[in-house]
Amino acid sequence: MGEKATQEDQRSIVAPLIFLVIAFFQFAYYWLDHLKKDEFDHAKEIQLVGEIKQLLKEAGLLSQPSTFAQASKLRRLAAAKEKELAKYKNLHNKDYVLYTKLLLISKYVTYIVLVLWFWRAPVASISRQLVQPFERFLSWRTTGAQSNDVMIGIISWLIVSARVCRFVRRAYSK
């Protein structure tokens, strides 16, 4: 009797913990996307774009044959600033790609560990009346059935939790 109560307590703790792990990954992706849109050194980028526009504007005003050399010098300077801006953006894009790949790999490793850990063990239980037509899908690959409860397996819990977290993240981002 005591062992069954301990298993029930563990099951009641495991499901929310798995949900929180999935929510962490979803909001980490949201945070990375938010950082990409609003970069920390956005002021430097704005300054470079302003300098480029100013140089091109000045070069456009110098249209006389006597000022051709000065105009071409300003255009070359603007082209150099554009290369600097492209290099700056590329550097920040590489960081974003690296962090995204790292997050993706850690997410997949965590999911694999969770699936291997809870492959045959139920993660949660829910009343059979609430999930009558979906009972086979939710209890896929789990053992231990109770009379009025459906045991929820890890794969179905990961799918449902990911969908709920994605829905919450989209609602939060609006």
- The portion of residues assigned to helices is over 70%
Q: What's the number of helices?
A: 5
Largest sheet: 2 strands, antiparallel
Tally of domains: 1
Between the first and last Cα atoms, what is the distance in angstroms?
A: 49 Å
Specify Rg, calculated over alpha carbons.
Answer: 28 Å
- How many strands appear in the DSSP assignment? 2
Derived structural class: mainly alpha
- Biggest sheet strand order reads 1-2
Keywords: Membrane, Transmembrane, Transmembrane helix
Protein name: Tail-anchored protein insertion receptor WRB
Please, could you describe this protein's structure?
The chain crosses the membrane at residues 12-32, 96-119. This is Tail-anchored protein insertion receptor WRB. Keywords: Membrane, Transmembrane, Transmembrane helix. The longest helix has 50 residues, at 68-117. The protein contains five helices and two strands, in the order αααβαβα. A two-stranded antiparallel sheet has the order 1-2. The protein has one domain (2-173). Helices cover 75% and strands 5% of the residues. Helix 1 (2-37) runs antiparallel to helix 3 (68-117) and helix 2 packs antiparallel against helix 3. With 174 residues, it is mainly alpha-helical.
